[in-house]
Design goal:
The protein is of the alpha+beta class. 39% of the residues lie in helices and 15% in strands. A hairpin with a 2-residue loop joins strand 1 and strand 2. It comes from Micromonospora endolithica. InterPro entries: OxRdtase_Mopterin-bd_dom, OxRdtase_Mopterin-bd_sf.
Length: 405
């Protein structure tokens, strides 16, 4: 089976889909707010993306981009492995340096293969909450993505003409009608992908494509449930944190429990106060005072970097109403701090558009009941289209910056 045509079929699938994985990954990095120093890694030099205010509409934006990034990335694993199998002779080509062009090609191949395997491995481990790296996942995954992207662009520039030629050599529709008995080797090729003395085929090229496609569909079916609510969520067998942990109005997933975050129950008891600040104005409100303020209800998603998301109905006080209590109607940004004392996400900075959105809340209730400790009791932030880790739980204070003329 091995030869330029089959390699090019797998290559075409990756050529069409990998840019989508790359673009959604970069969009998710932007969603974390690099302008406020809360996208990881902090210092990326000239690889820094343009500073933009991540939009709050549509409210499902981050849910779709991150879900697509993770689900499609998992579905492409069989295609990547099949593509590597199809070019095994090329990986062990000897001598390795017969010309400058060959050196350049093999260098891009090394970065391409190493880059995509590194991105897959670190991504899958992060989704399983298995931090076995010995290095920061966000930093390594970000720079690894750029290395892989550069290698992909160079590799496509070198190989695109051969991919087109190979695909034209055998009509796809006709090849998909050929069974194992009719499968014949491709003619010898300059890349040496076709074996010098091919053995009998163990399956047809049609079968090889169907096998890889079937595995991709299976992985997608075992993954996509993490981005859907209801019975579908129980099918997310590959992502245990994306599955429904319990029934009832608060039975949806969480990234970190109160216990894992080290939240002291004494800090969330009757003595808890929310501190609001804007310049020299400060105000402290207990939960009863917050409940006495005008309440707003919005149906908004929570979406996590691991790819899972859920849509729930939240009730609480609009963030812009809280800003008005301390004279910050013209707000420029807000810094939210959690009772969680350690961790990367125990604080978050919200842009003006995120504070002023009419559905941006300090949520006190979800689905008609009080928040539970794992869901952020006594109060948490909910903002449309914001990454879940920045929808801060166990809120202790919010400091508003007034806009300057």
């Amino acid at each position: 089976m091995r030869g330029p045509w089959l390699t090019s079929v797998y290559g075409l699938v990756l050529l069409v889909t990998l840019p989508l994985v790359i673009v959604t990954g970069l969009l998710d990095h932007l969603a974390y707010g690099p302008a406020y120093g809360q996208a990881f890694p902090y210092d990326v030099g000239w690889l820094r993306l343009p500073a933009v205010d991540w939009p709050t509409r549509p409210s499902w934006l981050f849910r779709v981009t991150q879900g697509l990034h993770v689900t499609l990335g998992i579905m492409l694993v069989p295609v990547v492995l099949a593509k590597l199998w199809s070019v095994i002779p090329k990986l062990f080509d000897w001598p390795p340096a017969r010309s400058v062009a060959q050196v350049l090609e093999r260098l891009t191949l090394l970065l391409l293969v190493g880059g995509i395997l590194f991105e897959i491995a670190t991504g899958l481990l992060n989704m399983q909450y298995a931090y076995l790296f010995g290095f920061d996942f966000y930093t390594a995954h970000y720079f690894g993505a750029w290395v892989f992207t550069a290698a992909l662009v160079a590799h496509v520039a070198l190989k695109l003409p051969r991919l087109v030629t190979a695909l034209r050599s055998r009509p796809v529709v006709r090849e998909l009608t050929v069974g194992r008995a009719g499968t014949r080797p491709e003619p010898p090729d300059p890349d040496g992908l076709v074996a010098a003395a091919p053995g009998d085929p163990t399956m047809s090229r049609r079968g090889a494509i169907a096998l890889v496609g079937g595995l991709s569909v299976l992985l997608g079916a075992l993954t996509v449930g993490q981005s859907l609510d209801g019975a579908w969520r129980r099918t997310a067998l590959l992502l245990p944190r994306g599955r429904q942990p319990d029934d009832g109005p608060t039975g949806f997933p969480v990234n970190r429990s109160a216990l894992a975050a080290g939240i002291d129950p004494a800090d969330t008891g009757p003595a808890w106060r929310l501190t609001l600040r804007a310049g020299d104005r400060t105000r402290a409100l207990d939960r009863a005072a917050l409940l006495a303020l005008p309440q707003h209800t919005a149906r908004l998603p929570i979406a996590c970097v691991e790819g899972w998301s859920t849509l729930q109905t939240w009730t609480g006080v609009r963030l812009r109403d809280l800003a008005a209590l301390v004279g910050a109607e013209d707000v420029d940004a807000a810094r939210v701090r959690s009772l969680e004392r350690a961790g990367l996400f125990n604080r978050a900075t919200l842009a003006a558009n995120q504070v002023l959105d009419p559905d941006s809340l300090l949520a006190l209730r979800v689905n008609g009941v009080d928040l539970t400790p794992d869901h952020g009791w006594p109060a948490r932030v909910i903002v449309p289209a914001l990454p879940g880790v920045h929808c801060t739980k166990w809120v202790a204070s919010i400091e508003f910056d007034r806009a300057t003329a």
